[in-house]
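Entry:
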Amino acid sequence: MALAREKRGSSVLSHLQQVTAERLGPLVELFVLDRMYDRTLPALAAMPRSAAVNLLYDVVTGAQDPGGLYFGDSSVKLGAALTIRDPRQEDPVSWVQFCRRAQEAAEFAGLPKALTQGMIGALRELETNIHEHSGQARDGVVAFRGTPAEFEFVIADSGIGVLAGLRSAPRYASLSDAGTALQTALTNGQSRLLDDDPGRGYGFNELFVNLANLNGELRFRSDDHALTIDGSGPTLPQARLAQKARLQGFVISVVCSLGAPGRLH
């Protein structure tokens, strides 16, 4: 669908009625792809929509409060918000509430409290990255989904992308491949801000540390590449790169779950 959008201009979102996507990651990625061409997302205006699609549509288009919208029943807990806060100021109530609800969704998925706190810490760190690196911070999207089987969160923006972000620093000026840029950005100690602050470059470390004892599925998407990692205790050496249709910005999708009942996988 993404390639069809790139080559023929047909709306990706208009195909959602033929696609069953329970997870938020694919939906957010489709939203970002369509938003590259038309920020009003007209393809969704008159079509039947699931709770997750409704939630994302209302947040992304500003139809309802962009500071946070939520849905929950006995089987799923959903939330989505735009990254409209100012990280230089004290966290607004809406952002504090969003993080609290995301933690509740992680606990609903069965993750122990200490792990849920770590995962929400990673979510907060990655949301801050949008403000520091994207160049277009206020329309980033943060979303979460909790079920009795797994917890998922997604961070996405429509900014300059990982390759352009790294190339803005002289030490990475020779980078020319988006896949290499993704691998570099995820490596400890690598950051376009290293020249100003040698302690930078560990923004993804908290994420990998907290997934060490979980089944995890991670997808990082920017420009014309996607990097995926999955399995028990996912780590960067497990990563697989693939070329994709171009996407403006950066999308991070994280899904995690417990292993056998009574213990971590």
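The first helix runs from residue 2 to 8.
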